[in-house]
Design a protein that fits this description.
By secondary structure, the protein is an alpha+beta fold. The chain contains 9 helices and 11 strands. It is globular.
């Protein structure tokens, strides 16, 4: 499970981040022609490609893109095997999004790797830092100021060409890329920020590994807030509303019911 710790309204939330619409289509299975922790795109396998020998974080997404050039379509990802058997689960994943930059590709690749390293029946979390991935490096104040000026002074129909002209199209593209993820707050894991700060003050005096890990966790949460705030601000400039990427389980269920109801209405119509 890929976990994004983030500070929000004096609380630290732990958010499960994954590729949107990646669906587990088979459980407890073992194909004769597919290994555990595999990626299969148009019948091509990650384990049999040159990318499998790479230690680069981008290798999984680069493999998917290279094998999707001619025929973009959904692809499969297998998990690791169960602890007590040779069986694994299988995900079906939507087409890989258009590349914006390496930093966002690293985020996508981390989500792919998280599925590949999943052990069915085991909930092992891995923290992720948007800043460490460099997601905010192209979200500069200068570019955001240009974006704001264009949106304020021009008709919406002219924005795309002006974004290209000012070399800030990647700001809008970032929003489109981020929309390929689903972020859900993990229930019963929210921590009051002042409580964590009090614990840190007590533990940092003795400088143990636990205190350093806790400080690293808090720093990640603060940094993720900073990056998320920038992306949300860009979303507000373009769409006149804050980014609604992170949702609680309750909000996610309401959204699911609404989508189902709308689908049934269309079918009736």
């Amino acid at each position: 499970m890929l976990i994004l710790p983030i500070v929000n309204k004096n609380r630290i939330m732990n958010v499960h981040i994954k590729i949107k619409a990646a669906e587990k289509i088979r459980t407890k299975i073992a194909f004769s022609d597919a290994k555990e922790s595999e990626i299969i795109v148009n019948r091509e396998k990650f384990s049999e490609s040159i990318f499998s020998n790479s230690k680069e974080i981008l290798a999984p997404v680069e493999f998917v893109r290279s094998k999707s050039l001619l025929y973009p379509r959904k692809y499969l990802v297998t998990t690791k095997t169960e602890a007590s058997s040779e069986l694994y689960d299988v995900y079906e994943v939507p087409c890989v999004p258009k590349k914006v930059n390496d930093s966002l590709d690293k985020l996508y690749s981390c989500a792919l790797t998280d599925m590949r390293k999943e052990i069915p029946g085991s909930k092992k979390g891995r923290y992720i830092s948007l800043k460490n991935l460099g997601v905010d490096e192209h979200l500069t104040e200068e570019k955001i100021a240009k974006l704001q000026k264009i949106v304020k002074e021009n008709d919406a129909k002219d924005w795309p060409s002006l974004f290209q002209k000012e070399d800030i199209a990647d700001l809008k593209d970032t929003l489109d890329f981020i929309d390929n993820f689903e972020c859900t707050v993990i229930s019963d894991t929210t921590i009051p920020e002042n409580s964590l700060q009090d614990v840190l003050k007590s533990l940092e005096v003795i400088n143990t590994r636990d205190s350093r890990n806790l400080r690293n966790y808090y720093d990640k949460a603060l940094a993720n807030k900073e990056v998320y705030s920038k992306i949300s601000y860009i979303n507000r400039i373009i769409y006149n509303e804050p980014l609604a990427l992170i949702k609680s389980n309750k909000q996610r269920q309401k959204q699911l019911i609404k989508t189902k109801d709308e689908s049934e209405f269309k079918n009736v119509a």
